[in-house]
Amino acid sequence: MRVYLDYNATTPVAPAVLEAMLPFLGDDFGNAGSVHTPGQRARAAVDSARESVAALIGAKPSEIVFTSGGTEADNLALFGSLAASAKPRKHVITTAIEHHAILHSCEELERQGIDVTIVPVSQSDASRGAVDPEDIRRALRPETILISVMHANNELGVIQPVEEIGRIAAEAGVRFHCDAVQSAGKVSLDVDRLGVDLLSISAHKFCGPKGVGALYVRSGTPLAPRFFGGHAERDRRPGTENVPGIVGIGKAAELARNLLGEDSQRIGDLRDRLESALLESVPNARVNGDRAHRVPNTTNMSFPGAGGEALLISLDLQGIACSTGAACSSGSTEPSHVLLAAGLTRDDARSSLRFSLGRPTTPVEIDYAISVIPSVVARIRALSPREPHAAAVR
Ligand code: PLP
């Protein structure tokens, strides 16, 4: 049996999404920038996808800029906002648990002479992994141009207090970007309620294709383009539109919007069943992160005394695909920056696994995972040279 529990890394394309895309990889191959009929058909499909993506997040279609994914949307938000400001000194505020698409962009901004403040997150049991909005307020400076705080963290699933931060940003007159790549399709998002000026999403995290995403840009928000070319995306992101991909994100957004309530209830119940069963049957297992404020599909658990990489490989041999952290960090021997920021010891961070469920996850798959994981942890613990917890009794 193969059980995929790594939906935060990526998801399969939903059949209805594939069906919607296929014509645009075949007969409907027109360039959305062309005036003739094939071009108009492509343009109509792009316009309709823009409406559907806008509807998913409560935006206007004109506020959606299609990109090549979450990474590009994050880069455009950061570099585009900073480049649009004429202030002589510039400052950005972000958090220690952001995805590398933000953190590495901030490192580059620093190399370009821009000040960056990285706000820590809570390390206390109740709110582990959540940023305190007051820390954001305290980090503000007269030269602050942008605050960038993610919505749901990709490793812990913890949802950040974005609405409060939105109010702080508005009071201070500072632009606010939110990386909502791990939230779109999992929880409802409304750009006005959140108080964001910019928000990133990525299709492949909600059953759309890889290589397409969107940046929401509130009307009137200054944003300098980072690419130069034709006039696509109202000059904010030139380049011939990826029509099949854009149709794909549009259909995925429509499905996510229609299925959100049903999906989140069902997936949340399955996640809770998996989590409770593992806490019950694996001695010393722990859940990492604020359990009260999480996306419904994610659990991050530590199994002290068992190395995450060894667990990952053994589980894969048993047909279970999960993750030790962000997919792009796999292969790295460093423990996850998110888990360290959330206060885990290096050893506990190295013994952690992320299980993330998705729309296709079934109860039978969860039962299989529950039947396999405890014995795999026990075996790895028994083989481990330093195994303080292997002999521990519950
Ligand atoms: N931001 C977050 C929180 C993510 O989890 C990811 C992907 O893992 C990204 C950004 C990057 O998105 P993409 O894979 O579309 O470039």
Outline the structure in words.
Helix 6 links the parallel strand 5 (144-148) and strand 6. Helices cover 41% and strands 13% of the residues. It has a seven-stranded mixed beta sheet, with helices on both faces. A three-stranded antiparallel beta sheet has the order 9-10-12. It has helices at 15-25, 37-57, 70-84, 100-111, 133-139, 162-172, 191-194, 243-281, 308-317, 337-341, 346-350, 363-383, and strands spanning 3-4, 64-67, 91-95, 115-119, 144-148, 175-179, 198-202, 213-217, 286-287, 298-302, 320-321, 352-356. The protein is globular. It is an alpha/beta fold and 394 residues long. It contains twelve helices and twelve strands. The two termini are 29 Å apart. Helix 3 packs parallel to helix 4 (100-111). Mean pLDDT is 95; it is low at 389-394. The chain binds pyridoxal-5'-phosphate.
Structural class by helix and strand composition = alpha/beta
End-to-end Cα distance: 29 Å
How would a textbook summarize the main sheet?
7 strands, mixed
Count of strand segments: 12
Give the overall form: globular
What gyration radius follows from the Cα positions, in whole Å? 22 Å
Strand order of the largest sheet: 2-8-7-6-5-3-4
The level of helicity is 40-55%
- Beta-strand content bin: 5-15%
Number of helices: 12
The overall pLDDT, averaged over residues, is: 95
Give the SSE order as H and E letters. Answer: EHHEHEHEHEHEHEEHEEHEHHEH
Question: Which stretches are low in confidence, meaning pLDDT under 50 for 5 or more residues running?
Answer: 389-394
Hetero groups: pyridoxal-5'-phosphate
